[in-house]
Amino acid sequence: MDDTGVVYASAPEFSSPIYVSYYVPAEGTRLPRTYLTTPEFESLAALVDAIAQKEMLAVKGVRVDGNRDGYVTFENEFEFMFSLYDNSGDIFERYTLARTAEPFTSRELSEFSYLDLRFGDTLYYKLKTE
Fold first, then answer.
1. Structural domain containing residue 93
2. Residue 24 in contact with residue 63, Cβ under 8 Å?
3. What is the reported pTM?
4. Quick one: which of 36, 118, 44 has its CA closest to 81?
5. Into how many domains does the chain fold?
């Protein structure tokens, strides 16, 4: 995949991941094909990079489902969910605000299963112990 989201071939597999894996509902196997539109992919990639840098965590994978919901899974198995219909700047801002609020300030990110921002200003989260 190039930096505009065009897929040319399957990536080789390594013993440890060196790429961020992107997954979308299959729409055929003919290559090259686009993952999302170029602006959508660039916005998604920038959002994923910004959050990974903020958390100082490697991203294991990014998945987009048929409802255009995005799921980012980090190396510590924490998953961040959001809607691709939302502006990536707004998503990042809401993510940052959520991380500065209780219960995120009193726990490590690795203690959470997920943070879900797919529903506007309402956030949902789940602790791994729940």
1. 18-25+39-127
2. yes
3. 0.83
4. 118
5. 1
